[in-house]
Specification:
heterodimer, A: mainly alpha, Ribonucleotide Reductase, subunit A, two-stranded antiparallel sheet, 22 helices, 59% helix, globular, B: Phenol Hydroxylase P2 Protein, three-stranded antiparallel sheet, 26% helix, binds fe (ii) ion
Chain lengths: 517, 89
């Protein structure tokens, strides 16, 4: 008698073993070193690539199945959002500016991450990490695409969303996240894994996505919440890859420890500097706030990062030195960054404003040691001046840090009233950095950082005007020419939120949605 | 001993998952924020396939967790029956 016996499926561990091993081959007419030329120059020694294991034990068949389901869910929400004028459901049109900063500053980097992981997968000689890098590479292009699709709904209605790719390669503040990824991508595959896989994904993306997406939910932005959480569902896998990679390097050879430690120190600081933009988003750009930057920092960096470093101590890994500086900085950076964008609001592709009284009270409560003492009076003064018709815009250009490319806006350790800068010399030229952390990075690889494309230097050298511009012509307006080269709609994308086209349109359209006249 | 954590989107898929996790890990604490819940637990956290299946009344593959997962912290070990997060010291 024939019985319909259900065939036993392979267990997860067996399936992972079958589908991620034995997929490679030894070369015959070329030596392996020539096929994998980037695998050794960084000094990392690997003896057995098969020791690599993905703890999720995810294989390509399961990957496609679950990713497809995530995509179906996401696009159903995006359709509903577009069909029902979801953009009018947000709390306040000021919120849109956080989304603009996200689209211009973060989404294009998802694309760079896609390229970087594709390259890392190509350059590692082991099959386990190659499979994991392939999945992450596909994830990252999905993130770029879904973010662009989700945010394009806003581009139909509001200013500043129209040309993010062009802007990324030119605009002064976008060079901060861009140079971060370029720095990582131009390093070798192992440093890339520490920079992006470990420092960025494991230690820092929680700070970017979790509070920001929860903030989007709080501010009624269904589209952003959905793409954010959909991307973040991949991040758990990315973090695991980053952590796995570090354990793998440290377990393979004791000589790897000092190299890995140096990269952790460097990329922790690089990442923290980039996150200043997120800090200002959380404290100033979300009309309804979930938690302060300082609180997010304490939960996701101090507690979670602390647990991680306590665990890595068994390999001899030490907490990066720069972290002592961070416990002071967490009380200041969001205020200092927002103050800078407010002053340079004429040259940003989003609107800026000063907080109202209620918001200032919230900031005082969240930052009892610093907000009233160092920032409130200045912010109140700017707000009063703006109300009298003297909105302050700075028309000079700030000096930029040679490493993180952030304007010199952070203050001296121990003295929040004095701007901090450091100076190094290399081949007879002087270079400036914003902090001991950035100076240390510069001094270690000056030959790399002297090549930085610094937007302010480039403007002064005359490289940032539209073709055919004559800077000697009478009445030449350099700022207007730069904004033109950036593809900003001067007068609409930039300047204060008060009086902006976004503000007027949102109020009018929301009125139409809630009234019959 | 440090905390491990796992965060999920809040929706109908995750309601029984969260319930099962909290029942299986009495030392775990759930913290809700808008649209998400973060479950913190000292030392380790174990998610069991069987407990979820009992609540939802159908077969469940632990890899389905990935659809609504937001973030994790700790070393992961996943097999057909358990999804375990822990710190080793
Ligand atoms: Fe991503
Ligand atoms: Fe810097």
């Amino acid at each position: 008698m024939d019985m319909n016996v259900k065939k036993k499926k392979l267990g997860l561990k067996e399936k992972y073993a079958h589908m991620t091993r034995g997929l490679d081959w030894q070369t015959s007419y070329q030596p392996m070193e020539k096929v994998f030329p980037q695998a050794t120059f960084e000094g990392i020694k690997i003896h057995d690539w098969d020791k690599w294991e993905d703890p999720f034990r995810l294989t390509m068949d399961a990957y496609w199945k679950y990713q497809a389901e995530k995509e179906r869910k996401l696009y159903a929400v995006l359709d509903a959002f577009a069909q029902n004028n979801g953009h009018l459901g947000i709390t306040d049109a000021r919120y849109l500016n956080a989304v603009k900063l996200f689209l211009t500053g973060i989404s294009p980097l998802e694309y760079v991450a896609h390229r970087g992981f594709a390259a890392a997968g190509r350059n590692f000689p082991g099959v386990g990490p190659r499979v994991a890098c392939l999945m992450q590479s596909v994830d990252e292009i999905r993130h770029a695409q879904t973010q662009i699709h989700a945010i394009s709904n806003y581009n139909k209605h509001y200013d500043g969303f129209h040309d993010f790719k062009h802007m990324l390669e030119r605009v002064w503040y976008l060079s901060v996240p861009k140079s971060f990824f370029d720095d990582a991508f131009s390093a070798g595959p192992f440093e890339w894994m520490i920079a992006i896989g470990f420092s960025f994904e494991y230690v820092l993306t929680n700070l970017l996505f979790v509070p920001f997406m929860s903030g989007a939910a709080y501010n009624g932005d269904m589209a952003t919440v959905t793409f954010g959480f959909s991307a973040q569902s991949d991040e758990a896998r990315h973090m695991t890859l980053g952590l796995e990679c570090i354990k793998f390097m440290l377990e393979q050879d004791p000589d790897n420890l000092p190299i890995v430690q140096k990269w952790i120190d460097k990329w922790a600081w690089r990442g923290i500097r980039v996150l200043s933009l997120v800090g200002m988003m959380m404290d100033y750009m979300l009309p309804k706030r979930v938690m302060s930057w300082k609180e997010a920092w304490e939960i996701y960096f101090e507690q979670n990062g602390g647990a991680l470093f306590a665990d890595l101590a068994r390999y001899g890994i030490k907490v990066p030195d720069c972290l002592t500086q961070c416990s002071e900085d967490k009380e200041h950076i969001s205020h200092q960054t927002w103050a800078t964008f407010y002053q340079y609001g004429g040259a940003a592709a989003f609107h800026t404003w000063m907080p109202n009284d209620e918001e200032m009270d919230w900031l005082s409560a969240k930052y009892p040691n610093t907000f009233d003492k160092y920032y409130r009076a200045r912010f109140t003064y700017w707000r009063d001046e703006a109300e009298k018709g003297n909105r302050f815009y700075s028309n000079t250009l700030p000096m930029l840090c040679q490493v993180c490319q952030i304007p010199m806006l952070f203050t001296e350790p121990g003295d929040p009233t004095k701007i901090c800068y450091r100076e190094s010399e290399y081949e007879g030229e002087k270079y400036h950095t914003c902090s001991d952390g950035c100076k240390h990075i510069f001094d270690d690889e000056p030959e790399k950082y002297v090549q930085s494309w610094l937007p302010v230097h480039q403007i002064y050298q005359g490289n940032c005007f539209p073709e055919g511009t004559d800077p000697t012509a009478e009445g030449f307006d350099p700022l207007a020419a730069v904004l033109d080269w950036y593809h900003f709609n001067n007068g609409h994308d930039n300047l204060d939120f008060e009086g902006s086209r976004d503000q007027a349109n949102f109020a009018a359209w929301r009125g139409m949605a809630t009234k019959n006249t | 001993m440090s905390n491990v954590f796992i965060a999920f989107q809040l929706n109908e898929d995750t309601r029984p998952i969260i319930e099962a996790v909290l029942a299986d890990n009495p030392h775990a604490v759930a913290n809700e924020s808008p649209a998400m819940v973060k479950i913190d637990a000292e030392g380790q956290l174990v998610i069991k396939r069987e407990s979820i299946e009992e609540l939802i009344g159908r077969d469940f593959d632990l890899q389905e967790l990935q659809i609504n997962l937001i973030t994790i912290s700790g070393h992961l070990d996943e097999d057909d029956d358990e999804f375990k997060l822990s710190w080793l010291n």
